[in-house]
Write a structure and sequence with these properties.
Radius of gyration of chain A: 29 Å
Number of helices of chain B: 1
Helix content of chain B: 40-55%
Structural class of chain A: mainly alpha
Order of helices and strands of chain B: EEH
Shape of chain B: elongated
Strand order of the largest sheet of chain B: 1-2
Strand content of chain A: under 5%
Largest interface: A-B, 55 and 36 residues
Oligomer: heterodimer
Largest sheet of chain B: 2 strands, antiparallel
Chain lengths: 520, 46
């Protein structure tokens, strides 16, 4: 290698990727099928996703929620994403049926599949960043899957700030890099030759063949790459403009602690009481929130969730009841909290059990002091405590308290979302057909297509056999999808599977003109 | 609120089903659509 890095890099690039290959004006005549256009349509859609996403990021969430122009750009972004996956999947199908990994193109295939997989994560963080009801429901549904494999603390789907950063910075950077590398590999290698016709001797191939050598003897036709990209860009733009204009985008208002306390005071008090008593789902969840094991998943003796440990600690009694009541400057409330705290564990349990039954039987009406009306009984200090907590929540103060962590800017919604995941969000999701048994995660509010590209992931949850419908369902689905994704990435190297395109023979349609010419 | 359909373990909302059907139709159509070509040139790629 020359000591001049610049010169040697230029020479290497000039040899490996000459301009005639990077911006070709000819291509083999067998490239006749419209299937070849899906790649350009995918690139065009990605450009639209990045452009609309950049504008949304510039103006921020308030703009896309409250301003008509902002909401239209939100719709453009959503439909660009739908277009991106629509064409990316069609491109994937097209390349699969061509066996496009042949003749030294395995890396091209693998970068494409990895770009597809990372795009799914990018889109997923986008759905979490919408900051509406969809985001809330997707976040509380997905947290169990993330927690089951031990990454729930590192990749906390309930933390809006973290997900937003992933969505607008890290993941777009990775997707763009992978797509760029994929395109370079495509240009470097050129399009793969058709499968040999019956009786035809396969053309020789050897590694490190130049494109000129690879295409030797093959008829070429004029080709304008940039014009094709421009036309496909225009088609994608029109498609996105039309769908966004006609269908807009869903934006159901998110639930708040205030709204829940106002609309369902009995439900709010019941959940708060279970958080204090320590018998709620979250109180007994386990890592990453606490050391319990109610929702811990494992594969045999191995539990990545336990190994990862408690990284997002949530003391439910303190977070949802005692700390909020600590902000109240009222002697009666302070005394009630003190009485409860100093009582024996048995006494506390007796009070919470009795009050829980009374709250469960309550019809949700409030008395003149704003406290929940319940049957008379010995509930100790609990009616005063929960009357005050209900006041705080109904005023909207609890929403702020649950976000406060000693800093001025707040973007981590873990605590309120965990509380809402106990009852309010599942109740609302059921009304909107968003539950897992209603095709859950890939669904959207309203009559919108959701994340259809997640169909295989969500499909496993419907399989009515263990482990897919048992307590370890999330980790089982994760492992299944990890194996299938790895198989898709490594398809070029898997004997038998890499011969599937030759067996299903869809390529006969893609290259039918080529085969017709050969038979003449 | 999206309606959904279920055939055994296959469960899907109608909007998502429509998207998947349209994808299949577009792909099938693309298999039969040929791109326009000008004149061909015999010989090598470059």
């Amino acid at each position: 290698m020359s000591q001049n890095w610049t010169k040697s890099t230029r020479e290497w690039l000039g040899k490996r990727l000459p301009a005639s290959q990077f911006l070709p004006d000819k291509q083999p005549t067998y490239v006749r099928s419209a299937v070849y256009l899906f790649g350009a349509l995918t690139i065009a859609s990605l450009a639209l996703v990045i452009a609309t996403g950049t504008i949304l990021a510039l103006f921020g969430p308030q703009w896309w929620h409250l301003n008509a122009v902002g909401h239209f750009f939100n719709s453009l972004h959503l439909w660009s994403v739908e277009a991106l996956f629509f064409f990316m999947v069609l491109h994937l199908w097209g390349m699969f049926f061509q066996g496009a990994w042949r003749d030294g193109r395995a890396r091209t295939w693998m970068t494409g599949v990895i770009a597809f997989a990372v795009s799914i994560v990018a889109a997923f963080t986008g759905y979490l960043s919408q900051s509406n009801l969809d985001s809330q429901w997707i976040a509380v549904s997905a947290k169990d899957a993330m927690n089951s494999i031990g990454i729930g603390g590192l990749f906390n789907v309930l933390n809006f700030g973290q997900m937003y950063t992933f969505h607008i910075y890290l993941l777009p950077l990775i997707v763009s890099g992978l797509v760029g590398l994929h395109i370079v590999l495509v240009r470097l290698r050129g399009v793969v030759r058709p499968y040999p016709a019956k009786g035809e001797t396969p053309a020789p191939y050897r590694p490190k063949m130049t494109q000129e050598e690879y295409y030797r003897g093959i008829k070429m036709a004029p080709y304008d790459l940039l014009r094709e990209l421009a036309v496909m860009g225009a088609i994608a733009l029109v498609l996105v403009l039309v769908t966004a204009s006609i269908f807009s985008s869903p934006d159901d208002k998110p639930l708040t602690m205030q709204g829940v306390a106002q609309s369902d005071p009995a439900g709010f008090v019941a959940v708060s009481l279970s958080e204090l008593a320590g018998d709620s789902v979250i109180a007994q969840y386990g890592p990453p929130y606490n050391t319990s094991d109610g929702s811990v998943q494992s594969v045999g003796p191995i539990s990545p969730q336990k190994i990862a440990g408690v990284s997002v600690p949530v003391d439910t009694a303190q977070a949802y009841v005692l700390a909020p009541l600590g902000t109240v400057k009222d002697t009666a409330v302070t005394t009630a909290v003190e009485t409860y705290s100093k009582a024996s564990a048995d006494q506390q349990t007796a009070w919470t059990d009795a009050y829980g039954k009374a709250v469960g039987a309550a019809d949700g009406t409030l008395d003149e002091h704003g406290q929940l009306k319940v049957a008379a009984g010995d509930y100790g200090p609990l009616p005063v405590m929960f009357g005050s907590l209900l006041d705080i929540a109904r005023s909207g103060a609890l929403d702020g308290i649950l976000l406060t962590d000693g800093k001025f800017y707040q973007t981590d919604y873990t605590k309120p979302l965990l509380f809402l995941s106990e009852k309010a969000l599942p109740d609302r999701a059921q009304e909107l057909h968003l539950l897992g048994n209603q095709w859950g995660m890939m669904n959207e509010t309203g009559s919108y297509p959701g994340q259809a590209w997640l169909w295989l992931y969500t499909f496993w949850y419907q399989v009515p056999v263990s482990p897919f419908n048992g307590p370890n369902a999330d980790i089982a689905v994760w492992l299944t999808m990890a194996v299938l994704t790895a198989a898709l990435i490594l398809l070029p190297y898997i004997p038998g599977l890499n011969q599937l395109p030759r067996i299903v023979r869809v390529y006969r349609l893609i290259w039918r003109h080529h085969y017709q010419e050969m038979s003449q | 609120m999206s309606p959904y359909v279920q055939w055994g373990i296959f469960l899907i909302t109608v909007p998502n089903l429509i998207v998947i059907i349209v994808m299949l139709l577009v792909f099938a159509a693309a298999l039969f659509i040929a791109l326009p070509r000008d004149q061909e040139t015999d010989g090598d790629a470059q």
